Amino acid sequence: MSTILANGISDEDILSRLRGVLHDTFEIEPARVNPDAHLFTDLELDSIDAVDLAIQVQEMTGMRIKPEDFKSVRTVGDVVATVQALLHR
């Protein structure tokens, strides 16, 4: 997977990349991945999966993610917002 380099990336672009990551890593159908989907209840991720997802996002952005950056992430939309925040640091 290539790193996101452009700061002008849209939320939809990030969502598309997340769909790929969640499908490839956790075998979650892309149609289930929408901004309102809760990572733990809707997509059935657990705390170990959340760590794996944070690592995937780190690789996707090419930026180091601190635990507090991902602490409040609960939905796919939260992940998109976190990626946007990392890209605009």
Would you give an account of this structure?
The protein is globular, with a radius of gyration of 12 Å. The chain has helices at residues 11-26, 47-61, 67-70, 76-87. The chain has one domain: Non-ribosomal Peptide Synthetase Peptidyl Carrier Protein, Chain A (Orthogonal Bundle), CATH 1.10.1200. With 89 residues, it is mostly helical. It has four helices and no strands. Helices cover 53% and strands 0% of the residues.
Short structural summary:
The protein has 89 residues and is an all-alpha fold. 53% of the residues lie in helices and 0% in strands. It is built from 4 helices and no strands.
Structural class determined from secondary elements:
mainly alpha
Sheet-strand content, in percent, reads under 5%
Number of domains: 1
Q: Could you give me the name of the CATH homologous superfamily?
A: ACP-like
The CATH topology is given as Non-ribosomal Peptide Synthetase Peptidyl Carrier Protein, Chain A
Strand elements, count:
0
Query: What is the helix tally?
Result: 4
Rough outline = globular
Sheet with the most strands, sense and barrel status:
none
What letter string, H or E per element, gives the SSE order?
Answer: HHHH
- Low-confidence sequence ranges: 1-5
| CA-atom Rg in angstroms | 12 Å
Alpha-carbon distance between the two ends: 22 Å
- What is the correct CATH architecture? Orthogonal Bundle
CATH class category? Mainly Alpha
Mean pLDDT: 88
Helix content: 40-55%
